[in-house]
Amino acid sequence: MLENILEGLNPQQEEAVKHFKGPLLILAGAGSGKTRVLTHRIAYLIDYYDVNPYHILALTFTNKAAGEMRERVDQIVGYGSENIWVSTFHSTCVRILRRYIEVLGYKRSFTIYDADDQRALMREIIKFLDLDPKKYKERAFLNVISNAKDELIGPEEYARRAQGDKMREIYARAYQEYEKRLRDANALDFDDLICKTIQMFQENQDILSYYQNRFRYIMVDEYQDTNTAQFKLISLMASTPSENGGVEHNLCVVGDDDQSIYKFRGANIMNILNFEQEYPDTRVIRLEENYRSTQNILDAANAVIHNNTKRKEKALWTRKDKGDSIYYSQFENEYEEAEAVSSAIARAVENGEASYKDFAVLYRTNAQSRVFEEKLINYNIPYRIVGAVNFYQRKEIKDILAYLRTIENGMDDISAKRIINVPKRGIGLTTIDRVSNYAIIHGISFYNALRDYEYIENIGRSATKLGSFVGLIESFRTSLEDPDYSIEQLVRDVVEQTGYEAMLSEDDTEESQARLENIEELINKAASYEEEHEEDGATLGGFLEEVALVADIDNVDDSTDIVLLMTLHSAKGLEFPYVYLVGMEDGIFPGAMAVYGEDPEQAAEEMEEERRLCYVGITRAMKKLSLSCARSRFRNGEHQYNRPSRFISEIPRYLIHAGTGSSTASSGGVSAAEFLKHQPGGISFGTGQSNRGSFSNTSNGFSGSSYGNGSAGRSYGTGTWNPAAEQRVKQSGH
Ligand code: ATP
Ligand code: MG
């Protein structure tokens, strides 16, 4: 066993894996085995130090990563892995809160509001506060609130700080109302999951002690993206009474400051930089060998990130070969770009060079996926979009879940309002408003107000309609009292008896057919949930909880042979043999805020964050990286003409193979030398004339309109070519 755990590790990795007690910080670049070290360390703790798996907590970034980690430990140790607590921050907090949240005055069956629910709620609040919805956007309010929560600033504290600032005073009122309504609905938003757990720990020493004692070894992956609240949470828990009567901080965090990409979500890079201050006895280990990518890919990544000023310099090298060049192409428009990528994937799979699952297409924003979907479908390529419209965010799924929540917990107004007239029951907005007012006056939930339908004034004939809606919900509640009545059956009954199924069947379009299939999938999900919880008791609340927390990436099964499409953010921590980084255009990636931002300081910071994102993207690739951009694309209702991303010009040109770029075959393209020869003015990459048509290359995929067949001004690069970057990489000489 033991040999297995340490086998193949380099000396620094081994040192980290063998580390037993006290704080440990592993700071290292992409692909250097940080996640692997965490996994092996868990195995080592169990196998060598005889730590009970029950005392281990590992926090990962996605549920997928959690699953993989557990599986790996299982492979190495062969026992106990089911007792390790491996999960994301959010799932961890949900588990803790489900157990103890009553001390904060919530019910354990609390609902978790997703972004949609939050927006619906905030729209109501804006209306309630008599603010002009044209001027005040719910998104801005929600951002303010989320940022405050990330910094652990509650509504009262926020209001205090806001005094004297008109706009912030308005935010403060909205924040207060938002909190009140969430509480009345027995609901938490995503940020609350962390904040309420902290609050609970701070106010209840006994609960905190329980977890401090339980989680004697805590490990955190992707530590660079933790925010202030998350750090507070970790540091509260990572304080275990030791045998000699003192306190131990058996906390091991791994991260890469160059991959910090969630500043917009409050990630606090200072968490890394201050770790050693917080824990003066920290052992710091750096890993420098990259095991993932070829030399060329690594050189490109290093060169790009080198343009950031605020960073800790790291040397990352690989013993792998140079490998393929970095492929680069500019296309006429986004359709040609997607066409080229799709045809290249199709051909590579046809030739037997690779499987679909070896490919990932990464882009900056979710909206970019649509065109790729269309083309992939044309080529019959199986694919999945990670993180876009999550299964659970589809309308029909949210509707059915809203029914289930109303049945489970009539306190959730957003859910009840969502479905009161879906399918149509002739209940209008005026009636809904009257019911809402009644609810506010009486301090009860919307659904409970509905139950009083006979007493609500001025609703006329609608009363009967409300009555039958209430009757329906109550009949489900009665059914649920029967212990033999399954959740699967409940979902079936809801779909049928509410008329939802009939509504879709009548519609009889392909879309409604797809919706019915999705609902069937939800029913399957309910059945499998019940199977899994046969012993510890399946409940409707438990089912809703599980459903609320699955991020889309969790549904990605490694064994399925499909191409994955996702944003760069979702790709963190993952690796693929072939990566397409698409839409590499100034204004897209780096995004408009970084390129055109008015405040220069802020724009510069944005740019550094975008560059880290680019570093993340490049370092996902193991064997081959293809970059592409489009000369024009349709965006926000107009044709945009973007320059190629400055990040492309930050890659030393000798690493780039241009004009082709998509096929997995390395032959048949245009050589870098040839590519340079065709550049106007040699290698200026500036804004001068570009040549026409000389680079069309049809032999390996990017047919026809590869870069260069256009007119003046459509240059290649941004004039910020950086010969120094090339120099540096050359000198580093790995
Ligand atoms: P990221 O920063 O992207 O999260 P990471 O530092 O977590 O990367 P891992 O994902 O742990 O890196 O490792 C990258 C790849 O290198 C994985 O495929 C892993 O299995 C492999 N690897 C890591 N260490 C070794 C080793 N000592 N021997 C062989 N392969 C290794
Ligand atoms: Mg990792």
TrEMBL record:
Enzyme class: isomerase
Region (Disordered): 718-734
Coiled-coil zones: 512-539
Binding site for ATP: A28, G29, A30, G31, S32, G33, K34, T35
EC id: 5.6.2.4
Identification of the protein by name: DNA 3'-5' helicase
Entries under CDD domains matching the protein: DEXQc_UvrD, SF1_C_UvrD
UvrD-like helicase C-terminal domain location: 295-573
InterPro entries, alphabetized: DExx_box_DNA_helicase_dom_sf (IPR013986), DNA_helicase_UvrD-like_C (IPR014017), DNA_helicase_UvrD/REP (IPR000212), P-loop_NTPase (IPR027417), UvrD-like_ATP-bd (IPR014016)
Reaction(s) catalysed (UniProt annotation): ATP + H2O = ADP + phosphate + H(+); Couples ATP hydrolysis with the unwinding of duplex DNA by translocating in the 3'-5' direction
SUPFAM superfamilies associated with the record: P-loop containing nucleoside triphosphate hydrolases
UvrD-like helicase ATP-binding domain location: 7-294
Family designation: Belongs to the helicase family. UvrD subfamily.
